[in-house]
Amino acid sequence: MATHHTKMLIIGSGPAGYSAAIYGARAMLEPIVVQGLQPGGQLTITTDVENYPGFRDVVQGPWLMEEMQAQAEHVGTRMMWDTIVDVDLAGGSPFRAVGDSGDEYIADTVVIATGAQAKWLGVPGEQELGGKGVSACATCDGFFFRGKKVVVIGGGNTAVEEALYLTNHSDDVTLIHRRDELRSEKILQERLFASDKITPLWNKTVQRFVAGENGALHHLELVDTVTGETSTLEADGAFVAIGHAPATELFTGKLPMDDGGYLLVEPGTPKTEIPGVFACGDVMDHTYRQAVTAAGTGCMAALDAERFLATLEHAKAEAAE
Ligand code: NDP
Predict the structure, then answer these.
(1) Residue 127: which domain range?
(2) Could you tell me the distance, in angstroms and rounded to a whole number, from the CA of residue 119 to the centre of ligand 1?
């Protein structure tokens, strides 16, 4: 067990955390990134990335995150293979955090970049059939269901985008939604309804994923939300697309959050209500949720942390005079 002192502690290692680290290190803040359970974040479970600027050709998500990590280290960031399990923010700067390893981190500023994770339905068969037909990422796993029968569960932008994406691989895509009206943007709805490969199935929830003899997904048991009737639907692949949950458990009761658990920041900035504590990336952004927007807010967090430290130094110098 050791105690690490830093001017900037970054919790989380997706595009937001690494971008904050790159800017923080170049401002001589000697940042420490505590990487968490999934170093690299959500991009490490995706494949093709073709919307991150700077790459003419498609790049792979895990590769992109390795490059970001290497760049952050190259400019002077320390990476810790640890997970923060407790934070003490109430007393103001310097803040204290404790890792799973037992190590302690004393930090003048904290940048929270813990990201978000896909939500699951929490019904029988879902976790058991993960990797055997049930997935939360069509762009990661859709390819495995070429020419097969697939379903998407959800009615938001993610669900509709995933259903449209899956038509690249399958001619038989069913979108299962618990109401008879989609939440997604109209333009996406128009594309969905125009596709002859997608069949919407309204007013249905999934109550169970059932395996076949080969141990892979065979069918779904559904319940009609209006009549209560049950039915079954055969499918080789099922994609759960019912939204994302931010990783903010660590901050419950310590920082203000919205109803969805996303950290609240001063609009247009990464500043939380505690001076010196910043939030960036998917943990504070449920609207855009892109690698490039996460990187952008990570940069903003580092710049604001630098300004906060300069003000602190100035105040200390004045007090000493
Ligand atoms: P949303 O929260 O927008 O939608 C979740 C959907 O899942 C809703 O239709 C909801 O139903 C349904 N749902 C939630 N829980 C359950 C459940 N237990 N059982 C069955 N259905 C359930 O999440 P998204 O991930 O789609 O989008 C999140 C945000 O990201 C949004 O702001 C979205 O606009 C944005 N986004 C933008 C994209 C883009 O601009 N290209 C792409 C993807 C996301 P109900 O409608 O009944 O509540």
Answers:
(1) 120-240
(2) 10
Tell me, yes or no, whether 125 and 232 share the same domain: yes
pLDDT digits (tens, 9 = 90+) for 240-256: 999 889 999 999 999 99
139 and 222, same structural domain?
yes
Q: Choosing from 100, 137, 172, 224, which is the catalytic residue?
A: 137
One domain for residues 133 and 186: yes
pLDDT in tens, 66-113: 999 999 999 999 999 999 999 999 999 999 999 999 999 999 999 999
**Residue 208: which CATH number?**
3.50.50.60
Among 276, 260, 271, which Cα is nearest to 312's? 276
Query: Could you tell me if 196 and 125 lie in one domain?
Result: yes
* Ligand 1 pocket, residues with Cβ under 6 angstroms: 121, 154-159, 161, 178-179, 183, 205, 242-244, 286-287, 289
Pair 214, 233 in one domain: yes
Choosing from 141, 236, 285, 304, the catalytic residue is: 141
Instruction: Read off the pLDDT band of 118 (50, 70, 90).
Output: confident
State the distance from the centre of ligand 1 to the C-alpha of 11, rounded, in angstroms: 26
Give the three-state DSSP class for 16: helix
Distance 173 CA to ligand 1 centre (A): 18
Judge whether 299 counts as a catalytic residue: no
* Residue 274, burial from CB neighbour count under 10 angstroms (0-12, 13-18, 19+): middle
CA-proximal residue: ligand 1, atom 5 (nearest): 242
- Whether residues 153 and 217 share a domain: the answer is yes
Closest ligand 1 atom to 244 CA:
25
> With 80 as the cut, is the pLDDT of residue 45 above it?
no
**Does residue 90 share a domain with residue 70?**
yes
Residue 119 above 80 pLDDT?
yes
Give 116 Cα–ligand 1 centroid separation in angstroms: 14
- DSSP secondary structure letters along 101-162: TS-EEEEEEEEE---EEE-----TTTTTTBTTTEES-HHHHGGGGTTSEEEEE-SSHHHHHH
